[in-house]
């Protein structure tokens, strides 16, 4: 493809969002997110979500660190190394605040194993990060950033305030988080523009699979899902 044709083509993010818009709408209207917005989400369901999300963030941070190692320029290396730090250090501070509020001791967290969906999502990210080229890794990581930003803003727009989950809403609806998300979208688009047709197809597959797992993660928390045997 010529440079002119590349510049005229839609960006990867535009294509990915359009193709997966029904998935986003399914996530936006999940019972978990509706109840979080109106403040009626049970403490038990939110605790389940937060504990599993804390497990997930460790794997997410590892996948980001691998992305940093595969980055094709120094800016990407710094961007994703910093993102890995934020995932493990900064966002976990939010979990610590809720753990303290809801009486979840560190030992309780340590004894709680990953749910089936959390294990699946974490394994998908780590496996993709190790096995796939840089553009595909970014596509797999992008939904966790982008969907959380959009869900955060959506919930903020319809939330009952004060809300027991104000800190969660404000974190993901906040401009600092959205600025970071825009930067990841831009980096993913740059990587996609230089990717082969096969790599771009694999990027779309990875992006959609991550979106599906985002839906499953919230649904799992609503159902308080655990290992059946």
Automatic annotation (TrEMBL):
It comes from the Bacteria. GO terms for cellular component: cytosol. The active site is at 214 (proton donor). One of its GO terms (biological process) is thiamine diphosphate biosynthetic process. The keyword Amino-acid biosynthesis does not apply. It is an enzyme of class 3 (hydrolase). Signal peptide: none annotated. Keywords: Hydrolase, Thiamine biosynthesis. It catalyses: thiamine + H2O = 5-(2-hydroxyethyl)-4-methylthiazole + 4-amino-5-hydroxymethyl-2-methylpyrimidine + H(+); 4-amino-5-aminomethyl-2-methylpyrimidine + H2O = 4-amino-5-hydroxymethyl-2-methylpyrimidine + NH4(+). One of its GO terms (molecular function) is thiaminase activity. Belongs to the TenA family. This is Aminopyrimidine aminohydrolase. It comes from Ancylobacter tetraedralis.
């Amino acid at each position: 493809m010529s440079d002119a044709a590349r510049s005229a083509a839609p960006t990867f993010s535009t294509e990915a969002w359009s193709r997966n818009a029904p998935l986003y709408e399914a996530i936006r209207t999940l019972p978990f997110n509706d109840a979080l917005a109106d403040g009626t989400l049970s403490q038990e369901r939110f605790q389940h979500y937060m504990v599993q999300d804390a497990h997930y963030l460790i794997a997410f941070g590892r996948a980001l660190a691998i992305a940093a190692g595969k980055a094709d320029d120094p800016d990407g290396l710094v961007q994703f190394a910093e993102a890995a730090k934020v995932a493990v250090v900064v966002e976990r501070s939010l979990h610590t605040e809720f753990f303290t509020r809801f009486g979840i001791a560190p030992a309780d967290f340590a004894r709680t194993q990953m749910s089936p969906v959390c294990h699946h999502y974490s394994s998908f990210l780590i496996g993709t990060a190790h096995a796939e080229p840089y553009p595909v890794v970014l596509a797999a990581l992008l939904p966790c950033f982008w969907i959380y930003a959009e869900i955060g803003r959506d919930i903020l727009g319809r939330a009952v305030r004060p809300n027991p989950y104000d800190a969660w809403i404000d974190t993901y609806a906040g401009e600092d988080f959205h600025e970071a998300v825009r930067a990841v979208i831009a980096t993913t688009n740059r990587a996609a523009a230089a990717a082969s047709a096969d790599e771009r197809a694999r990027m779309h597959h990875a992006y959609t699979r991550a979106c599906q797992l985002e839906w499953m993660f919230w649904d799992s928390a609503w159902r308080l899902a655990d290992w059946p045997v």
